[in-house]
């Protein structure tokens, strides 16, 4: 409270006292006793009112001690148990919790991680993926503005995500890995990598590339076999030693029958080889008898063209080629879908052929689109021509029912650019994306589909879709979400399947270490997304006839079921909406492959490099006491005294108001009682 405020309070006291005495003592004709009471009440009223106007405040300072944070993150993946390190990890956690000196020095928080980062609940060491990079990035975001040290309990064997040795190097938090696992090297053969296409064409030979790696000093000889069931399809003898310790084996296999076919690549183990699990890898190939060809037709150069081609061809079942109008006219029957990029008058013969042959198309309009021509050449939609342009973002229509859309955050994507003004779609249509202009969602279509007489068409009112793919990568460190969205749109436009109230989305085969997710959408009779559907999946193992039933849970605009934990094998499944008894069926194959059992040792070199890059130091389980001592005595992690200063009112205004009302009320009552009013 300042000196000026104290002066005003004293002045207010004097003014209030003077006015009260002047009114009730100097000029008052009533009894001295009543006059004294009224003078006191008037003084209280005036002084309270003046205090409310002055509103005196004072500064309250609170001091407290802040401990540095010690974050203990334990790897909960199966490799920890496979290397017989799970008991050491649990013992370390208990030691940290019971160490009083460490707890007095640090605010200790516990986490566990596999492919995601979680608060520590129960460590089972049974997860089939580990992403150390994501765990470190998550911790760095949580503790970015604090004094924090990270103790990482892991074997350093990452199976998913970016290389943690480099991705975490920009973070400012010191990392102290506790290396779990044997660092002694044993002679070991393993299949380091297997490269094979997901799809193959019937009666064609598909390539298989196997990378074999040997870790040892003596010369060894082994045999690589590729088999399907009881049939050996390929065999080759491989000789390796300490200098020539790897070999790439290439071969081709004939795709004989349509469907998902499983194969096994196997290296004969060495005598007394400690880990033979990494000598075997299973893979599958889906054999198909046709391939979708997509023509991207344009008369201009634009980054969107390359993005469309790249995105479409991420699915090996599809081939895309960029053509000019005159090039596509002579081979129109070779393509199942035509992407018409910013059409102009030269597209007229192509539009005529597409209508005549009832072929499907995808029109993309932008700032170089000839709308006068486009309005004349077809009657399905009409754009108001203004010769002005605007940017518009996208908002997903949750009631879109033609195919499932997931994992793409349209609201976070950059705006597309196209003609300013309304585009009227004159035929029955389904809006996939609405326009968002200056932050306001409109009812106008940004992306819509039509289906007239089995002829499907999509219309996108915006160019610069390449920005969407780039933003998708920035958000997810992968192009997959954008490519999956584009793939589903192309798949819908390339086929002529009837519209369905129940749509399902799944892969034909999965590795057992992958996320096995099946998603579905259900719509009511008006084809509006139904959020109260009761979807259940029933799976049957075709070999054992064992049946599994799981509910599908609502997740944003989809119903999903996570089938992780199912044993390897072939499964038939049926998804049923129990309220209306609508169902769809399918088949999946789960391949036996445990990526967490591919490791023989801890990756001590990489963990030591991580520690050095992040101002820390790596330790082994027999150095736990040394780790504790150095953490406690590290001058970077000192307990600091901090203070908070709060400016608070000297008196609560509610109390002053109540006191003012009480004094004025009592004064009025006394004056009324004594006939002064």
UniProtKB/TrEMBL annotation:
Membrane-traversing stretches: 6-24, 36-54
Keywords: Membrane, Transmembrane, Transmembrane helix
InterPro entries reported in the protein's UniProt record: vWFA_dom_sf
The keyword Transmembrane appears for this protein: yes
UniProt name for this protein: VWA domain-containing protein
